[in-house]
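// run 5 | inverse folding | seed 20
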């Protein structure tokens, strides 16, 4: 299988290598593509006309709010005459799944507020937040100003929105502005560059695919598959939406004329044979780096050589979208690629239907041993904040477990399970981690697996960091418990346990003894195999 290189490309087709095949689809490919679309529909990956119209209406209202807010901010600035107030512009852009045209029913919308140079980020997180609070349509409003990419999260008239902010070095924002142009990055702070990156990457992906409609249908299928198999989550070390989009885009470049069904098959064929950590690129790296922003390049940057599964964004400054991937998550993803290839091959041989590809993960059938991580709080607003914060730290726990010499693999399931116990005054969710141990550990008669440090250090970091950033509130708790597979029924809804058929041999054998004591901040663990 041809691999992407760090430079090269051709003049006829987008990408860093020539296409593998220019073959046009056969009738059988078109029929399989129609069946693929039919199989996708029951999963809510297509919105109705009414739902799409509602989203457009919400975006129009938000855009109007932004324009009025910029006018109000401008009036408060010194030396700005009233005659100029209406000329400054400003607008809301979309990016991510909505901009790509693959948003699903009930999905959130990623948005970016672009403002002229006299409007500060502090204005966005103060006066604009106050304006939003005054809107009756706004619910669950949270401003996360200290995040790596600062964001306002909210629900507006039933639609979830994530809103970023970028202040351009321009006196006014023209209505026809194209954020793909690198000139708009000049004289910007890093937070604005990172905020702009979502829009720039999304637009560049669309620019670099040969057939947008085939790309969209294929991406809908791959995103649904990834979510069903539990490998869709950037924050937990799997791949996020932009990474899946870039992988699909690369396959579209390699087979520019193929139908969606063929592209799904080639997706698994190409990725199951990919020689990681060779990077996936949609276009050559920008080696000139005119504006001086850090750019991913393993030839130049030693740290980039340690990335396990690099998928590089196409817009300057090019970055690795998968820096969170760990040894465990890469193993899990590549195993799923191979299983996906096996399933789609059987579909092409008419031995399976497309519904097989979208069967739920067999996560709760695969292992003998699990860890459950529970996050809880006493108030709804505190719970939403605490849940997002704890989720962002789970990679640290997985990393600790991976470094334990007895553990071969730590498999975290991205989905958080309830219940949320409002009537009892507690809001709570649970994440599960499956464990696989090295064979020599299981065969030993005297092996003692001590996870005290792994668990305690994670718990300490979670609490100390939360206190340091003023996030911790009374009633916020993290609890970690060991489970055998037969105990899962006490923690996992029955309908979830019934999903997913075991397809592989379980990863561990042997008997465990487990001792656990805990206070608010510490957990002590020891097991004997």
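// decoded
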């Amino acid at each position: 299988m041809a691999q992407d290189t760090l430079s090269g490309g051709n003049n006829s087709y987008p990408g860093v290598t020539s296409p593998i095949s220019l073959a046009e689809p056969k009738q059988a490919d078109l029929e399989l593509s129609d069946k693929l679309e039919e199989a996708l529909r029951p999963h809510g990956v297509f919105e109705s006309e009414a739902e799409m119209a509602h989203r457009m209406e919400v975006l129009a209202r938000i855009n109007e709010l932004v324009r009025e807010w910029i006018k109000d901010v401008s009036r408060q600035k010194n030396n700005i005459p009233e005659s100029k107030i209406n000329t400054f512009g400003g607008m809301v852009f979309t990016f991510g799944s909505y901009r790509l045209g693959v948003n699903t029913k009930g999905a959130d919308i990623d948005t970016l507020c672009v403002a002229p140079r006299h409007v500060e980020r502090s204005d966005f997180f103060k006066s604009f937040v106050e304006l939003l609070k005054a809107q009756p349509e706004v619910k669950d409003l949270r401003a996360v100003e200290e995040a790596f990419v600062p964001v306002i999260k909210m629900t507006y008239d039933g639609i979830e929105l994530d809103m970023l902010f970028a202040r351009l070095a321009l006196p006014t924002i023209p209505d026809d502005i194209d954020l793909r142009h690198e000139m708009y990055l000049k004289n910007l702070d890093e937070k604005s560059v990172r905020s702009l990156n979502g829009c720039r990457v999304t637009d560049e992906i669309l620019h670099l695919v040969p057939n947008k409609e085939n790309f969209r249908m294929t991406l809908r299928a791959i995103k649904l598959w990834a979510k069903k198999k539990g490998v869709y989550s950037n924050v937990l070390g799997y791949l996020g939406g932009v990474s899946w989009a870039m992988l699909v885009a690369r396959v579209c470049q390699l087979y520019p004329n193929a139908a969606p069904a063929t592209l799904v098959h080639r997706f698994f064929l190409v990725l199951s044979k990919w020689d990681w950590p060779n990077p996936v690129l949609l276009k050559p790296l920008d080696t000139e780096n005119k504006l001086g922003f850090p750019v991913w390049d393993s030839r130049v940057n030693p740290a980039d050589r340690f990335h396990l599964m690099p998928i590089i964004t196409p817009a300057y400054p090019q970055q690795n979208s998968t820096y969170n991937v760990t040894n465990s998550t890469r193993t899990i993803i590549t195993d799923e690629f191979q299983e996906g290839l096996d399933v789609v091959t059987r579909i092409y041989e008419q031995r399976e239907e497309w519904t097989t590809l979208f069967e739920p993960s067999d996560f709760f059938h695969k292992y003998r041993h699990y860890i459950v991580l529970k996050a809880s709080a006493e108030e709804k607003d505190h719970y939403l904040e605490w849940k997002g914060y704890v989720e962002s730290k789970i990679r640290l726990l997985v990393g600790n477990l991976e470094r334990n010499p007895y553990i071969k693999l730590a498999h975290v399931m991205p989905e958080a399970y309830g219940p949320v116990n409002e009537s009892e005054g507690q809001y709570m969710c649970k994440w599960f981690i499956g464990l696989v141990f090295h064979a020599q550990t299981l065969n030993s008669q005297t092996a003692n697996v001590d996870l005290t440090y792994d668990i305690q250090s994670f718990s300490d970091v979670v609490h100390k960091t939360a206190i340091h950033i003023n996030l911790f509130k009374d009633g916020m708790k993290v609890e970690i418990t060991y489970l055998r597979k037969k105990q899962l029924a006490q923690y996992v809804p029955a309908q979830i346990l019934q999903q997913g058929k075991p397809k592989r041999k379980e990863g561990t054998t042997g008997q465990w003894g487990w001792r656990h004591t805990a206070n608010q901040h510490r957990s002590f663990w020891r097991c004997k195999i």
